[in-house]
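Could you help me review a protein record that somebody else here produced? My question to you is simply how this chain folds and whether the tokens agree. Thanks in advance; the entry in question is below:
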Amino acid sequence: MSGTQDKVISIKGERVVIKELSVAEIRQWLKEEVEESVKQNKELSIEGGVKGVKDSLNEAVETVASTGLDLIGDWLLDDGPLSVLVRMTDLETENLDHFSPRELNVVMAACKEVNSHFFVLRGKLMTIGEQILRDKG
């Protein structure tokens, strides 16, 4: 990757390389995410009033399980899903389970430092998505 600057940190005595993503890599990542989202149709809805809450929640849990969504991986860290760490580091998905959330936050902070433009873009896209959902509902 010419023109990019990587950073090396140490977590639990393990060397972790934070990779600076190029514009082309960010474009490809976004394209893959959109294609995967369309493919899996990740829309979950919980309908019904108080009477149907238990059934609706059970249905939602079953729906999440059947789609292969990783709720922990997607929502554990405030600054992004664990998949961000896999894209921006030399860590593999299965290695992430060996770290505590605090340790993963250290890795995420380094990712934010090296790829600050990506996180600004992510924030803008999240704001647009939230606005679309507000307008829809």
Summary: The chain has seven helices and two strands.
